[in-house]
C-alpha cells in the first residue's frame, strides 16, 4: 500500500521481536500492539533514536521529564518497565553502563517509507426524508459499516461514539472533523427512499484536502440490508488499501440475521440501550426479544439481550441468578457468532461482574483479536486489568481507547479514575471524576476517598456528605466492598483506606461546633 499523500515517512525502528513507530505512537511485539505507559514510551523513543550511543542519566531525565524535577528512581522505574515491555529481562538490549548511563544496544533501523495505517471515521448518514424509522435503521447500518471496517487491521477506525458527535449539518467540513478526531478520511452518506426503494449514496473524503476519493449509490432492491452494508465496506476498503490481505477479503463474515426484520429490531434495541429514559432499557428488551422471535439463532441479538437484562438489574448489583442467566445467554451468542467481537465483549463484561476475572480477560482479548480498534473493548480491558492488580497496564489500554474515541462516553472517566486511584495518583483520579456530568452516591464516595488520600479532609467530608444526601441509607464501606470487582484483597483494602479516612473526616466535621454567625 502506498503511503498516504502529503505525510512524511514515519520513523520506524526494529529491535528484538519489536517494531517501534514513533510518529504513530505504537509499539508492536510479535505483530501485536503493546500498551506502553507514556513516560516509558518517551524513554524508548529517545533510546531508539540514539541507538548505539551511551546516554547519561541526566540526558534521559531531561528527555523524558523536560518540565519537572524527578529523582533517578523515576528513571530506574521507567527502565525496569521498558525492559519488561520489550521482553529484555536479561538486559541484553538495554544495557546499564556503570557510572555512565544506558545504551540501547540493538540495531535500530528506520526502514524505507512504507504503508501508513490510515485513520478513518464513519459519520452518521443524512436521512433525506427525516423518517425516524429510516434514521434509526441508518444508524444501525453505519454501525455495521464501522464494525466491518474495523475487521481490517490495516485501517484504524474511530469509535462510533466520537464519530456520531458530528451529525450532518453540525460541523464546518472535513478538515475540521479530521482535526477534531485526528483522522485522515471520512465516510459520509445520504439515504433516501425512491418509490419505496432505499437508496444510499456513500462518499469517501480525504480530510486534509476535502477531496472526494470515491462515491457510489447503493440500492436495497432485494431488502437485504446486511449484504448492502457488506458491499459498502468492501468498496471503502478497496479504495483505502491497495493490498489488503486476500485472506481477510475472502473471509466469511459472521452470521447475520436471517432477514431484515430481525436486523431492524436489533438496531432499535441497541439504539434504546444507548439512550436515556425511565423505560428505555425495558423497551430495548422488547425489541431484542422480537428479533429473536423472528430469528432464534441471531447471536448478536442474544448478546445484546443479555446486556439489556443486566442493565435492567443494575449491572454488578444484579442477583447471582440474573448474572448467570446473562452469562449463559452471552455464551450462546458466542457459540452462534464466534467471529463477532461484540459477543465476546458482552460476555467478558458479564464475567467481570461475576468476578470470573481470568475468563473475562480471555474474552476481552479475543474481542480485540477480532476487532483491534473497538475503543470500548480497549477501555473495558484496561479496567479489568486494574481489577486484576495491573493498573499501570490498565491505564495504557485506557489511554489507547481515548485516542480512538476522543469524544468518549462518560463512563471512561469513571474507569480511568479507578485506575488512577490504584496507581496512587489521587488528584488525577479526582479530576477524572469531576468530568462526569452526573454524579451518584458511589461517584461522590470515590471523590471523597481521593481527597482524603491527599489530606484534604474538608473536601472529603463534603463529598461523602453529598453521597449520603443522595442515598440516605448509604453505607460507603458495604457499597465499595460489593460494588467494585477487585480480584485482590490488597486492592480493595487500598480503596477502603481512602473511604474510611473520608468517613473519619465527615464524622469530625459533623462533631465540630458550628461557626459563629456572620453579619
Short descriptors:
519 residues, alpha/beta, Arc Repressor Mutant, subunit A, Rossmann fold, Serine Threonine Protein Phosphatase 5, Tetratricopeptide repeat, 6-stranded mixed β-sheet, 4-stranded antiparallel β-sheet, 22 helices, 12 strands, 54% helix, 11% strand, globular, disordered N terminus
How does this model look, in words?
This protein has helices spanning 38-49, 57-64, 72-86, 132-150, 160-163, 174-181, 225-240, 246-250, 260-273, 280-294, 299-312, 320-336, 341-353, 357-370, 375-387, 391-404, 411-422, 426-434, 441-453, 457-470, 476-483, 489-511; strands at residues 12-15, 18-21, 26-29, 32-33, 94-97, 101-104, 119-122, 126-127, 156-157, 185-194, 197-206, 212-220. It is globular and about 80 Å long. A hairpin with a 2-residue loop joins strand 10 (185-194) and strand 11. The chain contains 22 helices and twelve strands. 41% of the residues are buried. Residues 1-10, 111-115 and 242-255 have low confidence and may be disordered. Helix 21 packs antiparallel against helix 22 (489-511). The chain has 519 residues and is of the alpha/beta class.
Strand content: 5-15%
User: What is the count of helical runs?
Assistant: 22
Q: Summarize the biggest pleated sheet.
A: 6 strands, mixed
Structural class by sheet pairing and helices:
alpha/beta
Shape: globular
Amino acid at each position: 500500500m502506498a503511503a498516504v499523500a502529503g505525510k512524511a515517512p514515519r520513523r520506524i525502528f526494529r529491535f528484538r521481536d519489536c517494531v517501534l513507530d514513533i510518529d504513530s505512537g505504537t509499539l508492536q511485539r510479535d505483530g501485536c500492539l503493546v500498551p506502553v505507559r507514556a513516560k516509558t514510551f518517551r524513554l524508548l523513543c529517545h533510546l531508539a533514536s540514539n541507538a548505539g550511543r551511551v546516554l547519561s542519566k541526566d540526558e534521559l531525565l531531561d528527555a523524558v521529564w523536560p518540565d519537572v524535577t524527578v529523582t533517578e528512581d523515576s528513571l530506574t522505574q521507567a527502565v525496569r518497565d521498558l525492559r519488561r515491555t520489550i521482553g529484555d529481562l536479561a538486559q541484553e538490549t538495554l544495557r546499564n553502563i556503570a557510572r555512565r548511563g544506558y545504551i540501547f544496544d540493538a540495531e535500530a533501523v528506520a526502514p524505507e517509507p512504507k504503508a501508513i495505517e490510515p485513520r478513518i471515521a464513519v459519520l452518521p448518514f443524512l436521512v433525506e426524508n427525516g423518517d425516524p424509522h429510516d434514521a434509526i435503521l441508518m444508524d444501525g447500518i453505519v454501525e455495521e459499516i464501522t464494525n466491518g471496517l474495523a475487521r481490517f487491521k490495516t485501517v484504524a477506525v474511530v469509535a462510533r461514539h466520537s464519530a456520531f458527535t458530528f451529525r450532518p449539518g453540525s460541523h464546518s467540513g472535513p478538515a475540521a472533523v479530521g482535526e477534531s478526531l485526528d483522522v485522515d478520511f471520512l465516510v459520509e452518506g445520504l439515504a433516501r427512499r425512491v418509490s419505496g426503494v432505499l437508496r444510499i449514496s456513500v462518499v469517501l473524503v480525504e480530510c486534509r484536502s476535502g477531496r472526494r476519493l470515491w462515491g457510489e449509490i447503493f440500492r436495497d432492491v432485494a431488502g437485504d440490508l446486511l449484504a448492502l452494508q457488506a458491499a459498502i465496506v468492501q468498496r471503502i476498503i478497496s479504495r483505502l488499501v491497495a493490498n489488503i490481505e486476500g485472506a481477510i477479503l475472502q473471509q466469511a463474515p459472521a452470521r447475520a440475521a436471517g432477514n431484515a426484520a430481525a436486523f431492524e429490531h436489533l438496531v432499535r434495541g441497541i439504539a434504546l440501550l444507548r439512550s436515556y429514559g425511565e423505560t428505555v432499557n425495558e423497551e430495548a428488551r422488547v425489541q431484542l426479544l422480537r428479533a429473536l422471535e423472528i430469528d432464534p439463532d441471531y447471536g448478536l441479538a442474544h448478546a445484546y439481550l443479555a446486556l439489556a437484562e443486566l442493565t435492567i438489574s443494575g449491572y454488578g448489583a444484579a442477583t447471582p441468578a440474573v448474572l448467570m442467566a446473562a452469562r449463559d445467554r452471552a455464551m450462546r451468542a458466542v457459540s452462534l457468532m464466534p467471529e463477532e467481537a461484540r459477543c465476546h465483549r458482552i460476555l467478558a463484561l458479564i464475567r467481570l461482574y461475576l468476578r470470573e476475572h481470568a475468563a473475562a480477560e480471555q474474552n476481552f482479548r479475543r474481542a480485540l483479536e477480532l476487532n483491534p480498534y473497538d475503543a470500548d473493548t480497549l477501555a473495558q480491558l484496561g479496567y479489568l486489568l486494574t481489577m486484576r492488580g495491573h493498573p499501570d497496564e490498565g491505564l495504557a489500554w485506557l489511554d489507547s481507547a481515548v485516542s480512538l474515541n476522543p469524544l468518549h462516553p462518560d463512563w471512561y472517566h469513571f474507569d480511568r479514575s479507578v485506575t488512577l486511584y490504584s496507581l496512587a495518583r489521587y488528584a488525577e483520579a479526582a479530576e477524572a471524576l469531576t468530568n462526569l456530568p452526573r454524579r451518584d452516591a458511589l461517584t461522590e464516595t470515590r471523590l471523597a476517598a481521593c481527597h482524603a488520600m491527599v489530606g484534604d479532609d474538608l473536601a472529603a467530608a463534603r463529598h461523602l456528605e453529598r453521597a449520603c444526601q443522595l442515598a440516605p441509607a448509604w453505607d460507603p464501606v458495604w457499597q465499595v466492598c460489593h460494588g467494585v470487582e477487585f480480584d485482590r484483597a490488597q486492592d480493595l483494602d487500598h480503596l477502603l483506606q481512602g473511604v474510611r479516612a473520608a468517613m473519619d473526616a465527615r464524622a469530625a466535621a459533623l462533631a465540630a461546633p458550628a461557626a459563629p454567625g456572620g453579619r
